[in-house]
Amino acid sequence: MKNIILFFVVVFGLLFVVGCQNPVNDSTEKIATTNDTPPSLSLLSVTNSDEVVIVYFNEEVDPISSQDPANYTFKTTEGVVLNSQTGGRGIDENGHPALYTPQQGSLEKNTNLKTVVIYFGMEQQSQNPIPAGKYQIYISGIKNLSGTAAIQAQTLVFTVTETIRPTLDGRITGSAHQITIKFSEPMDIVSTTSGDSYEILTGDDITGHSWTKLSDLNGISMSLSNLNKDLTITFPNSINIDNKTMFRIGTINNESKILTPKDVAGNLFGGGGFGSSTLTTSVKVD
Fold first, then answer.
1. Taking 50 as the threshold, does the pLDDT of residue 4 lie above it?
2. In angstroms, how far apart are the furthest CA atoms of the chain?
3. How far is Cα 283 from Cα 248, in angstroms, rounded to an integer?
4. Which contiguous run of DSSP H or E holds residue 134?
5. Residue 59 — very low, low, confident or very high, per pLDDT cuts 50/70/90?
6. Which is more confidently placed, 51 or 275?
């Protein structure tokens, strides 16, 4: 009997010791993980058309590599690298953005690391626009936020629409029954040769300031020349053009809609070209 009790005590003691040396671990161990997935492009947007390109990534990216101009190369759709001559002063000789700024506050404050904004000029200005046309942007070297994986080089095509308004390229000149207007760029034929786009104030009407829309006059003809940059307006013999004649480009109809010439891209006339930014311009005929 004593032997049986001793055996039980010994066995129980061994079990107790083993149990103390191997406690049950019911806690979950946390393991740190690293994102090794490379980023990719999700969208490319062109705002203000010829001034700003916005690149959207599918995940947050490393601020240092995403703000390196060398990781963005602009080319023609045929793959020819742009330079300052073919892409505007916002592109350097290697096709990289020459004037590069990340979206204001986004990368610095870590509020939107999925977006990178490239300006071709000062923000909200048209100092270095890309000429109108189709282009492609080649993006490489951008790393994910942890810096462990870089984007597989990708190319996206985008279209730039010209947004510069036409202005006067010099003075409006006139002869006995004719007025010549020189615009700064090729013009849309329909709007530029429409009598609704112009008004005239001849010498006989100066006192009463009686502006007359050309569409209300009979016997007027209009023609474009010099790649549609020069407009010649011929008046009937009953209307004399002299140094008292005033001419207005751009009119406002009864519905407060501005009727004015447009360029071939559809941009409205932008004023006299002498610091003016108005859509209508009244000038004295030389």
1. no
2. 145
3. 6
4. strand 133-139
5. very high
6. 51
Angular region, 124: left φ>0, alpha ψ -120 to 50, beta rest: left
Nearest to 130 by CA among 75, 175, 177, 169: 75
Specify the CATH number of the domain 41-160.
2.60.40.1220
The domain ranges of the chain are 41-160, 173-284
* Whether pLDDT at 273 is above 80: no
Q: CATH says 173-284 is which class?
A: mainly beta
**DSSP of 54-101:** EEEESS-B-HHHHT-GGGEEEEETTSPBP-HHHH-TTB-TTSSBSS--
H/E segment holding residue 20: helix 2-21
Q: Which residues pair with 175 in a beta bridge?
A: 178
Q: Name the pTM for this structure.
A: 0.55
Distance separating alpha carbons of residues 238 and 92, to the nearest angstrom: 57
Mean residue pLDDT across the chain: 76
